[in-house]
Amino acid sequence: MRRVYLDHSATTPVDPRVVEAMLPYLTEIYGNASSVHHFGQEARAAVDRARHEVAALIGARPNETVFLSGGTEANNLAIRGIAEAAEQHGRHIITSQIEHSAVRGVCDALEKRGWEVTRLPVYDDGIVRVEDVIEALRDDTVLVTVMLANNEIGTIQPVAEIGRLVRERRAAGHRHLWLHTDAVQAAGRIPVGVEALGCDLLSLSAHKLYAPKGVGALYVRRGVRLVTQNVGGHQERERRAGTESVASIVAFGVAAELARTELDARAEHVRRLRDRFERGVAQSIEDVVFNGDAARRLPHLSNISFRYIEGEGLLINLDLQGIAVSTGSACSSGSLEPSPVIRALGRNDELARGSIRFSFGKDNTEEDVDYMLEVLPRAVENLRRLSPLYQRAQAERAACETQPVVAGN
Ligand SMILES: Cc1ncc(COP(=O)(O)O)c(C=O)c1O
């Protein structure tokens, strides 16, 4: 069976060039980067080289980059670390309603411990408004955390504008106000620069950019004080204890270098495939809604709600035909919870349940898109035929069409 992977926002395959670069660090150069002997020094040098590359991807200095286990840990360290460090200055955090669960969960946990959290809405375009940030800011706000690009609909948030606002407030005397952004989905897909964004902390995950799972980084601007969450060792300049996963870090470094040098070509490639796919869907399937702002979004991602059907059913149907996609709905206690991100766009539960994310990667081809466009319309039609909602809608449409048109109406 033909297999087409369209779930690159969930994870990406490891690039063969990355595998090649990391292998010696499993078999030959296996020292602990903290050891003083030759084996250790070689491992340390490799970690330092990787740190340069990861920092270069986001325009940071190497010593502002902390390696850790991935995007989830980066978000935990950033948000908890700032909240605990700035506690005596305030306990208010501003975030958005469409954050990844790794940010949402940390904010919820802090709320239970007495912090106040303002969750900014997005509008039908899936984008946070800077005016809402201005309105939400208080004297006791210590952190604004807004993602750079959303993982379900790909919308790009106005982080640079929020960054300017935070800097202005800080210059005006609000000294303990910091900006964090989760750039896990954005990095390697659009240009990301910490100076242009004006952020103080930024989260990265290697497995979204063709490196292995289980490694990531947090950018911490020089001068920002964080309370370390993972204690018990001196690694990463006391910011994250634990023996470095040298081979994974090497892989992350090489993947970051490739992502930087190939960024434009990759973006153009996936945008072309995504746009071809969306044109095909619009022409061949009726009753679909494209979610998220059409222009201000990541080039590789398309999120579509298919009326009258459950996204989960469509996902399984496509999987049986070799196509991997994902839904934002979560199956909890036997019922499908509609995606909170799609709900935040103001869509009803039916559209939120019927949404599917298609995310393209650098190795997808036009033939993949064509196969998708062959399979998808049939799968949607088959599921709709079984849907009582669809049958009712069709009957109502047929009735409308046979109604005589009354003059003057
Ligand atoms: C926006 C966003 N943040 C954080 C994460 C978590 O990253 P990791 O899988 O490396 O823990 C993800 C992964 O899906 C993500 O999409």
Provide an overview of this structure.
With 409 residues, the protein is α/β, with parallel strands linked by helices. The protein folds into two domains: 16-261, Type I PLP-dependent aspartate aminotransferase-like (Major domain) (Aspartate Aminotransferase, domain 2), CATH 3.40.640; 263-395, Aspartate Aminotransferase, domain 1 (Alpha-Beta Complex), CATH 3.90.1150.10. 43% of the residues lie in helices and 14% in strands. The chain is built from 15 helices and 14 strands. It has helices spanning 16-22, 24-27, 38-57, 71-85, 101-112, 130-136, 159-171, 194-197, 246-261, 263-284, 311-320, 340-344, 349-353, 366-385, 388-402, and strands at 4-5, 65-68, 92-96, 116-120, 141-145, 178-182, 201-205, 216-220, 288-290, 301-306, 323-324, 330-332, 335-337, 355-359. Helix 7 links the parallel strand 5 (141-145) and strand 6 (178-182). The N and C termini lie far apart (54 Å). The model has no long low-confidence stretch (mean pLDDT 95). Bound molecules: pyridoxal-5'-phosphate. Residues 70-72, 100, 102, 147, 151, 182, 184-185, 205, 207, 216 line the site of pyridoxal-5'-phosphate (PLP).
Low-confidence stretches: none
Spatially, the strands of the biggest sheet line up as 2-8-7-6-5-3-4
Beginning-to-end CA distance, first to last residue: 54 Å
CATH class term of the largest domain? Alpha Beta
Oligomer, anyone?
Answer: single chain
Largest sheet geometry? 7 strands, mixed
Number of beta-strand segments: 14
Instruction: Quickly count the helices.
Output: 15
CATH superfamily of the largest domain: Type I PLP-dependent aspartate aminotransferase-like (Major domain)
Secondary-structure-derived class: alpha/beta
